[in-house]
Structures are given as structure tokens and as C-alpha cells.
Design a protein that fits this description.
By secondary structure, this protein is of the alpha/beta class. The chain has a single domain, classed as Rossmann fold, CATH 3.40.50. 37% of the residues lie in helices and 20% in strands. A 7-stranded mixed beta sheet has the order 3-2-1-4-5-7-6, with helices on both faces. β2, α5 and β3 form a beta-alpha-beta unit. α6 packs across α9 and α10 packs antiparallel against α12. The longest helix is centred in the N-terminal third of the chain and has 15 residues. The N and C termini lie far apart (46 Å).
């Protein structure tokens, strides 16, 4: 257990199969589509990963582009988004100002300490009236009140996550983005099992909320998880929150 971010270059090969696959991707894409302003023609999906969600956003009249910082993720995404996937840091997008109608960031902000930079860059590339959509409060959404959560909860950081709604909303406001009604969607296939949670803890998952822990602490928590009943029965899937922020017209700024 290191408390560091996962190696997403290495994760690319197994990312989809371990993150709910197509059902979760379809739910996320449908949520994004529900929040897009009428007339949206172009969307940039930052941290697009394997492009599984991005490809399901695209449809006639709406072109979806993907950007990710990991080479392996972009290689996979490129097969799903021919000519529309690029390797890029979400803090320095290879786009001019006011270039796209929408920007999405699904399952990104909870992973990074530079949330404001991502929000600022999204605001920069958005056209007036465009929307920035981002998952928020992800770690909190994974607490579904199960017996697993009862064990994990005392270990969670008391500090608000980097994707906390209040924090993201404040950053958005400082960069000309106004909050608008959001939505939720089901994280299909993400219901935790005791055995799977212990395996993930040992591999270094949950870094965004668990932090650095000693080997003894990890061993103790894994032992407690091993004592729970129904080791391979998934607990309820989480319900993720997708927030929406709209770029104010130039005359209002």
C-alpha cells in the first residue's frame, strides 16, 4: 500500500473489465447526454481512458473527442475514436480558446490534487453557453451503507476530496462557470465484495481516500474484511453524481 495513484499505463489492458465494462460506460454516457445544452455539436472527454464512455457519447450531429495523459489508454481509445483521440494533459489541452461546446471529466477529479487547473482549462476551451460536466463526490458515492463500508469508513480521510461538490463549484465560479442542475447514474458492476476489496487494498487502490497506511494496518483491515460473510457477493452498486457547470456568455463576464 503506497497511497500513490495507480499506474494507468499498466491498468489500460484490464481497465474496462474491472470497472463495470459496457453497462457502466453506457450509464455514464447517457448521463452526459442528458446534461448537454441543446445544439451541442462538439464534446471533449478529458481523461477519456479507453474511450469506452466517449464512443457512446458520440452520435450523428455530435462529435466526441477524447484526451488522456496515458499512452496506453490513448492507444486503446484511438481504436474506438478513429482520428479523435489524443494524448494530452487535462491542464494543458491542445485547443484554442472557446473551441468546443462541452467538456466532460468522468471519474477524474477525485484522482488529482490540481482540480482547479482542470476546471480552469475546461472553462478556457468552452464556447459561451457551453457546459462542463464532471463526476463529483466519487468516494462518498461508493459508501452504500454496506458491511464493507462500515469497516472502511473509519479509515477514510476526514478531509473533503478533491472532487467535493463545494470545492468544484467554487473553482467553477472563479473561472466563469455557473452551476446548473446535474444528474446521477448507476455504477454498474462496481458493487464491492469483501474479497475483492481486500485484494484492491493490497494492490494500492483507494489511494484518493485511504492514504498511506502501514503494512500492519492494511493486514488488519484485510483480516476484518475476510471475516465478513458472503466473500464474493457484490454489495449494492454506487450511484455516481454528475455535476453541470455552464459557461457564462462573454457579455456577462
Amino acid at each position: 500500500m503506497t497511497g500513490t495513484l495507480l499506474d494507468y499505463e499498466a491498468e489500460a489492458a484490464r481497465y474496462d473489465e474491472t470497472r463495470g465494462g459496457v453497462p457502466r460506460a453506457e450509464a455514464a454516457a447517457a448521463a452526459v447526454l442528458r446534461l448537454l445544452p441543446p445544439g451541442t455539436r462538439t464534446l471533449l472527454d478529458v481523461a477519456c481512458g479507453t474511450g469506452l464512455v466517449t464512443a457512446r457519447i458520440a452520435r450523428p450531429g455530435l462529435t466526441a473527442y477524447g484526451a488522456d495523459a496515458a499512452h496506453a489508454m490513448v492507444r486503446t481509445a484511438a481504436a474506438r475514436l478513429p482520428g479523435r483521440a489524443v494524448r494530452a494533459d487535462a491542464r494543458r489541452l491542445p485547443l484554442p480558446d472557446a473551441a468546443v461546446d462541452a467538456v466532460s471529466a468522468v471519474w477524474l477529479l477525485h484522482l488529482v490534487p490540481f482540480t482547479e487547473e482542470i476546471v480552469a482549462e475546461a472553462a478556457r476551451v468552452l464556447r459561451p453557453g457551453g457546459a462542463f460536466l464532471a463526476t463529483v463526490d466519487k468516494d462518498a458515492c461508493h459508501d452504500v451503507g454496506s458491511d464493507i463500508d462500515a469497516l472502511l469508513r473509519p479509515y477514510r480521510s476526514a478531509a473533503a476530496g478533491s472532487d467535493a461538490t463545494a470545492r468544484v463549484t467554487a473553482y467553477a465560479a472563479s473561472h466563469g462557470l455557473e452551476p446548473a442542475p446535474g444528474t446521477t447514474f448507476t455504477g454498474h458492476g462496481q458493487g464491492a465484495t469483501p474479497r475483492g476489496t481486500a485484494e484492491k487494498l493490497r494492490r494500492g487502490y483507494f489511494a484518493s481516500w485511504y492514504g498511506t497506511r502501514t503494512a500492519a494496518e492494511v493486514d488488519a483491515l484485510c483480516a476484518a474484511l475476510a471475516a465478513l460473510p458472503d466473500q464474493d457477493r457484490p454489495r449494492p452498486d454506487p450511484e455516481y453524481r454528475l455535476a453541470r457547470f455552464v459557461r457564462r456568455p462573454a457579455t456577462d463576464r
